[in-house]
TrEMBL record:
Domain annotation PA: ranges: 17-99
InterPro entries membership: PA_dom_sf (IPR046450), PA_domain (IPR003137)
Gene3D superfamilies named among the record's database cross-references: 3.50.30.30
Pfam families: PA
Protein name in the entry: PA domain-containing protein
Length: 144
């Protein structure tokens, strides 16, 4: 188990970039590189989102579930063709709003410093992995 300190990056939820389903532009890659990126559910599968984030230099990816308080373990394709080497997690919509200060009146891409993943295990589901931002726990996460 290890810990990882990073910043979180989120793009404007009103635009497709937030869904993380297409190649990122050079400016978007610059914002993502070395950080965990937060993306929404929908439009493509979780595996594709993780591969695109990893290719853009992300240190991890956090999926936001559209349901207010629901999280679940997600799966990729039955026969994965690509290797994902970054941690992938899910948080609820409610927790995503808390990260944003409960409103979407921000300049995007938004950088949220002070994120830390504790007890990170890259190879399997971990119920012990915790995300804190500036010392405050975000949620008991589902590790993908």
């Amino acid at each position: 188990m290890e810990d990882m300190e990073t910043s979180l990056v989120i793009f404007d939820p009103l635009f497709d970039t937030f869904l993380g389903c297409s190649q990122y532009s050079e400016d978007e890659k610059s914002a993502i590189s070395g950080n965990m990126v937060i993306v929404g559910r929908g439009k493509c599968n979780f595996e594709d989102k993780a591969i695109l984030a990893q290719s853009a230099g992300a240190t991890g990816i956090i999926f936001v579930n559209a349901d207010e308080n629901k999280i679940f373990q997600v799966v990729g394709s039955a026969t994965p063709k690509r290797q994902i080497h970054i941690p992938s997690l899910m948080i609820s919509y409610k927790d995503a709003l808390q990260l944003l200060g409960n409103n979407l009146d921000h300049r995007f891409p938004l950088h949220i410093p002070g994120a830390k993943l504790n007890n990170l295990q890259h190879s399997y589901l971990s119920y012990h992995t915790k995300l804190t931002v500036n010392g405050k726990p975000v949620h008991n996460l589902v590790f993908v």
